[in-house]
Amino acid sequence: MTDVTTSTATTTSPSDAPAGGAPAVEAPATAPAAAAAPAATSDTTDATLLGGDAQEAPPTEAKADGEAPAGPPEKYELALEGVELDPDLVGEAEPILRDLKLSNDQANALLPLAPKIMAKAQEATIQQMIEAGAKQRKDWLDAFSADPDIGGAKREETEHLAAKGLDALGYGEDHAFRKALNESGFGNHPDMIRAFRRIGEMVGEDGSFVRSNDGVQDQPRGWLDRYKPE
């Protein structure tokens, strides 16, 4: 058998010919190659982030006309509604405000907090004083209770004699002096209790002071007679 070689070219048969006898045009065997992409320019290929042209700074917002510059003013003008500020205190505050780089408006915005801070500080101070006073009362009372001469087994006797001494001097239960002893805490002080116990020992059954020279008319009267209740 004889091999038949098939042509890759496409032929047109007479029946496919266009009317009028125009010669048929052969179609190309293959499509033309796609157009090559344009070569990268040297600017795109060689440029790097740091080696390229300097970037322009982003535009900044223009300040409104008449807007005061930020930062500390030449002189702070501080005012607080309803409060007269002490010029000396303001002078002491200015260096701190400048170190914080506060504008005048920012400094004035902080002023309403100052009275609240002072009130809190006063409350804390008063509370500390109350607690310290309560501790001092207890310490004095503990010292009195532990004293063998006036406390311990003699505590009840001491309380009776001290009250007797107060009454003999005119300091009854409702007297301002007794209230002051309670409010100050000195009513628990061992030496205060000791002193009024001693006075109570010198008072007789009738509430008057007993003189050591009773029956001796030529002796001067004792100094405690000056404190005899009317």
Question: How would you characterize the overall build of this protein?
Answer:
- There is one protein chain.
- Among the domains are: 85-135; 147-227, no CATH class.
- The chain has 230 residues and is mostly helical.
- It has helices spanning 42-46, 87-99, 104-110, 113-146, 155-168, 176-184, 190-201.
- The longest helix has 34 residues, at 113-146.
- Helix 5 packs across helix 7.
- The protein has 7 helices and no strands.
- The chain starts with 41 loop residues before the first helix and ends in a 29-residue tail after the last helix.
Which structural traits does this protein have?
elongated, 7 helices, mainly alpha, 230 residues, disordered C terminus, disordered N terminus
Write the layout of secondary structure elements.
Elements: H1 42-46, H2 87-99, H3 104-110, H4 113-146, H5 155-168, H6 176-184, H7 190-201
Helix pairs in contact: 5-7
Quick description:
This protein is mostly helical.
Helix and strand content put the structural class at mainly alpha
Distance between the termini: 168 Å
* SSE pattern: HHHHHHH
Helix content range of the residues, please?
Answer: 40-55%
Mean pLDDT across the residues is 75
Number of strands: 0
Give the uncertain stretches in residue-range form: 1-18, 215-230
The radius of gyration computed from the alpha-carbon positions, rounded to a whole number of angstroms, is 55 Å
Main sheet: strands, sense, barrel = none
Q: How many helices does DSSP assign?
A: 7
- Beta-strand portion reads under 5%
Which geometry do the CA atoms define? elongated
